[in-house]
């Protein structure tokens, strides 16, 4: 029963730890590797106006967090203008600038950082379909309505379902020989990209298919002015499916950022003249953790907040080291329980390994060996003075500190700059090691004492190599729930009673005799 209880506990810890880890990595975009970067752009809308002293209002659609895009760090540059944000019936976001009396040129700028998520983070489906299905008599004149009805009727006759209807629609929108009623819809020079989307929306709605024209920009790797791209979205099986209107074989470009939906123009202006309006973007490279933090904020995810990135920087530095201690302890557990390596305690090699991270391995080993050797000399000297345990241990501790102080001063004098690293050595643990080694020396002899000392140094080296892996440090700092998995492994090794590797080596002669 106890074994079953242990296995169930281990299973619970492992599933919980790996489950939270998978959710943060796959859904919230937390980086598994520290080198992972996020797709990010600096997006800008710039409008140059000429004012003549009358009240002026300028409005334009701006991007919003939806689908696989997140918008953050929005800024508005408009000296002397009032600014408001509003939302229309289709959920589009508009920035509205207004001024009462001003003369001369004026520049309005909107800027935002755009992030690309690995999956859709927000639903962009309408809560109500009536605005999507409604055409409205103000959108269609009598002649245009007749032409649209004939256009839809011919498309319907040549199709069998919605998919084939859309295929026929795209084909006619790109036909080189438009029919007479199509000329009325498209214009004599053929439909512009935006006009294609408008006609496609009207035709699909008349066909009783929930559809909406979408207008946006394609974000790329090169800094440039952006051109509007127009496509259509159709509601199928509860999901909006995007269709390109460039041709039957055309595919949707990557990184399409929607700006607005519907057939309304991009901007509205009254009381002024528009001199120029440009959309541009600049590609940026940012750590992916910034994308994960934004994702966590947008979803208000409790799981995503299980990191240390929201702590002050100095506190983060402490936890970067502290999170490695359980991993180092797991290494010591494996070395003691499975390999059979003898060490002075469990936490001493881990703390020595942490010190090695600051002093570097070779220098740290030399310092460790020197401090222990000198400390043992003074420990035996104090033994001859017949001191009690507590005063003797305090004296050894004082000697260790004095040695470290002298070494720091000498190294700083020769400008090796190792003073701070030496100060990071766990001086109390070193004093206890010296005391333990001296006791083992007296009870079991110098060979056993040196063997356990070397075993401690070897364990510290092994823990150092594991704890010094930058990817491992990043994983434990970003995904602290992995400590549950480490805890589960410790519990499993806590019930290990099989042979150890060193015992197999010790009793190899018996194994040879048994095999004969």
TrEMBL record:
InterPro entries: 7TM_transglut, Transglut_i_TM
Inactive transglutaminase fused to 7 transmembrane helices domain residues: 23-184
Membrane-spanning intervals of the chain: 317-334, 362-382, 389-410, 416-434, 454-470, 482-502
Keywords: Membrane, Transmembrane, Transmembrane helix
Chain ranges of the 7 transmembrane helices usually fused to an inactive transglutaminase domain: 266-510
Protein name, UniProt field: UUP1 family membrane protein
Protein source organism: Fodinicurvata halophila
């Amino acid at each position: 029963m106890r074994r079953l209880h242990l296995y169930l506990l281990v299973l619970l810890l492992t599933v919980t730890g790996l489950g939270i880890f998978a959710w943060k990595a796959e859904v919230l975009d937390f980086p598994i590797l520290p080198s992972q970067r996020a797709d990010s752009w600096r997006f800008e809308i710039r409008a140059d106006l000429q004012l003549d002293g009358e009240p002026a209002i300028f409005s334009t659609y701006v991007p919003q967090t939806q689908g696989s895009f997140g918008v953050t760090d929005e800024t508005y540059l408009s000296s002397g203008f009032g600014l408001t944000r509003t939302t229309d019936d289709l959920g589009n976001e508009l920035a509205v600038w207004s001024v009462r009396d001003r003369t001369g040129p004026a520049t309005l700028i909107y800027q935002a950082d755009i992030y690309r998520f690995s999956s859709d983070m927000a639903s962009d489906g309408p809560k109500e379909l009536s605005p999507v299905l409604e055409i409205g008599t103000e959108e269609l004149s009598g002649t245009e309505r007749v032409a649209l009805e004939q256009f839809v009727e011919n498309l319907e006759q040549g199709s069998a379902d919605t998919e084939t209807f859309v295929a026929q629609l795209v084909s006619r929108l790109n036909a080189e020989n438009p029919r007479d009623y199509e000329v009325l819809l498209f214009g004599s020079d053929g439909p512009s990209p935006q006009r294609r989307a408008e006609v496609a929306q009207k035709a699909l709605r008349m066909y009783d298919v929930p559809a909406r024209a979408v207008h946006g920009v394609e974000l790329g790797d090169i800094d440039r002015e952006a051109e509007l791209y127009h496509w259509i979205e159709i509601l199928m099986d509860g999901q909006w499916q995007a269709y390109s209107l460039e041709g039957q074989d055309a595919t949707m470009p990557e990184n399409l950022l929607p700006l607005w939906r519907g057939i309304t123009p991009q901007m509205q202006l009254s009381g002024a003249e528009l001199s120029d309006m440009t959309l541009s973007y600049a590609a940026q490279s940012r750590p992916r953790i910034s994308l994960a933090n934004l994702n966590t904020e947008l979803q208000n995810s409790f799981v995503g907040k299980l990191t240390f990135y929201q702590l002050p920087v100095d506190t983060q530095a402490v936890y970067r080291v502290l999170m490695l201690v359980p991993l180092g302890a797991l290494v010591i557990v494996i070395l003691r329980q499975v390999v059979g390596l003898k060490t002075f305690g469990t936490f001493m090699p881990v703390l020595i390994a942490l010190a090695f991270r600051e002093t570097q391995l070779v220098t740290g080993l030399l310092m460790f060996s020197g401090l222990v050797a000198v400390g043992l000399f003074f420990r035996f000297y104090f033994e001859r003075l017949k001191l009690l345990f507590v005063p003797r241990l305090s004296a050894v501790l004082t000697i260790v500190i004095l040695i470290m102080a002298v070494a720091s001063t000498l190294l700083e004098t020769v400008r090796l700059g190792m003073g701070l690293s030496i100060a990071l050595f766990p001086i109390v643990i070193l004093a206890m090691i010296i005391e333990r080694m001296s006791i083992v020396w007296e009870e079991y002899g110098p060979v056993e004492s040196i063997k356990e000392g070397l075993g401690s140094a070897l364990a510290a080296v092994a823990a150092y190599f594991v704890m010094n892996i930058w990817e491992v440090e990043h994983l434990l700092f970003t995904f602290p729930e992995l400590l549950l998995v480490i805890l589960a492994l410790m519990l499993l090794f806590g019930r290990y009673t099989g042979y150890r590797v060193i015992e197999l080596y010790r009793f190899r002669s018996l194994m040879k005799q048994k095999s004969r």
